């Protein structure tokens, strides 16, 4: 089985960057429309390049499209604000479901890059699952208690910063438990 192709970071960040620029320029409804369109264009570009689409970007694109269309059609920004909550809860549930059914999905995704004992993969998966729940809860708190402008700043910079910090916080665990091969 061939290794999945890794897309450049800018491909994954492009919809978010365009969302932020459109919000600053024209507001939340325009930003939502831009997010949906750029997400679908990016997904199409990935498919043309790789002749396949990984489940996570596909799932995210479906949720972005559904909640984006609801936001615009109903002129209700609450839908786009709930999207990160839904996605993070879904990711957490998917990871938990994998563990329940004895299929460690984190190992499936990252196992080509490094090896760990099954017990370490379980801990690593649980940590990610709890992190996704944390992000969902934090998103709910922020969109319900702060301005739309503050929420956009949080969505673009806060979630990204927290995710980066979380990844860095996992480095000691990976150094202790992972056998990282240079040829993988």
Which helices and strands occur, and which strands form pairs?
Layout: H1 9-26, H2 28-50, H3 55-74, H4 78-100, H5 105-110, E1 114-115, H6 118-145, H7 148-169, H8 171-177, E2 179-180
Antiparallel strand pairs: 1-2
Helix pairs in contact: 1-2, 2-3, 3-4, 4-6, 6-7
Word description of this protein:
Helices cover 80% and strands 2% of the residues. The protein contains eight helices and two strands, in the order H-H-H-H-H-E-H-H-H-E. The relative contact order is 0.10. By secondary structure, it is mostly helical. A two-stranded antiparallel ribbon has the order 1-2.
Summary keywords:
184 residues, mainly alpha, 8 helices
H/E series = HHHHHEHHHE
Q: What's the rounded overall pLDDT mean?
A: 90
Query: What is the end-to-end distance?
Result: 13 Å
Rg calc: 17 Å
How big a fraction of the residues is strand? Answer: under 5%
Strand arrangement in the largest pleated sheet: 1-2
Structural class: mainly alpha
Number of helices in the DSSP assignment: 8
Unreliable stretches, pLDDT < 50, 5 or more residues? none
Largest sheet: 2 strands, antiparallel
Shape: globular
Helix content: over 70%
Count of separate structural domains: 1
Give the number of DSSP strands: 2
């Amino acid at each position: 089985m061939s290794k999945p192709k890794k897309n450049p970071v800018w491909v994954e960040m492009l919809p978010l960057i365009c969302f932020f620029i459109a919000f600053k320029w024209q507001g939340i409804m325009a930003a939502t429309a831009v997010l949906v369109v750029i997400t679908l264009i990016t997904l199409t570009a990935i498919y043309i390049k790789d002749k396949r689409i990984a489940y996570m970007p596909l799932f995210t694109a479906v949720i972005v499209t559904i909640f984006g269309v609801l936001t615009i059609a109903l002129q209700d920004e609450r839908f786009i604000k709930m999207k990160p909550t839904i996605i993070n809860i879904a990711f957490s549930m998917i990871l938990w479901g994998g563990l329940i059914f004895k299929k460690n999905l984190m190992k499936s995704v990252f196992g080509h890059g490094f090896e760990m004992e099954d017990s370490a993969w379980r801990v690593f998966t649980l940590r990610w699952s709890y992190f996704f729940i944390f992000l969902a809860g934090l998103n709910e708190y922020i969109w319900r208690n702060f301005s739309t402008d503050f929420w956009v700043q949080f969505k673009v910079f806060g979630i990204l910063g927290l995710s980066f910090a979380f990844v860095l916080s996992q480095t000691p665990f990976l150094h202790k438990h992972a056998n990282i091969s240079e040829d993988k």
